[in-house]
């Protein structure tokens, strides 16, 4: 387990066998770039600056799928990308569920997202409609 408090993740490339990485409270954004971590199964990015601006979250999720193929647990709580009603009063459970479908569409091997286990029904729904579930606000 690595506990990192930083803005640069350059040094992680030497930890190719890393399995768990906690990057909570680091001001990390959608431009987060991780080295290839083939054994990484747990990643927490809680309380950072990850959002659903334009296509950037999609790019981040694609990046995670590529560099962390073993990822099973991901937590994005406390980020604008995670529409949690505890963080943002305008969000509700439907917004959060759409977010889950979108993330599961991009990362189908996840077993847990945030604090909840991924259900069979969610996985099926993500396969069918996940690509269309990105939560965006009109300008």
TrEMBL record:
Which Gene3D superfamilies does this entry report, sorted A to Z?
Answer: Ribonuclease Inhibitor
Instruction: Extract the InterPro entries matched here.
Output: LRMDA, LRR_dom_sf
- Source domain of life is Eukaryota
Give one Pfam hit by family name: LRR_9
Could you mention a single GO BP entry for this protein?
melanocyte differentiation
Q: Which PANTHER family match?
A: LEUCINE-RICH MELANOCYTE DIFFERENTIATION-ASSOCIATED PROTEIN (PTHR46282:SF2)
The protein's name is: LRMDA protein
State which gene encodes it: Lrmda
């Amino acid at each position: 387990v690595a506990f990192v408090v930083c803005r640069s993740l350059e040094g992680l490339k030497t930890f190719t066998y890393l399995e768990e990485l906690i990057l909570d409270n680091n001001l990390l954004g959608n431009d987060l770039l991780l080295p290839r971590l083939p054994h990484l199964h747990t990643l927490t990015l809680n309380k950072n600056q990850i959002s659903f601006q334009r296509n950037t979250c999609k790019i981040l999720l694609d990046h995670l799928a590529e560099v962390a193929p073993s990822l099973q647990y991901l937590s994005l709580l406390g980020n604008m990308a995670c529409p949690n009603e505890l963080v943002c009063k305008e969000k509700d459970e439907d917004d959060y569920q759409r977010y889950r479908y979108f993330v599961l569409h991009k990362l189908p091997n996840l077993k847990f997202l945030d604090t909840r286990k991924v259900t069979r029904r969610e996985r099926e729904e993500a396969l069918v409609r996940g690509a269309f579930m990105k939560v965006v606000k009109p300008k």
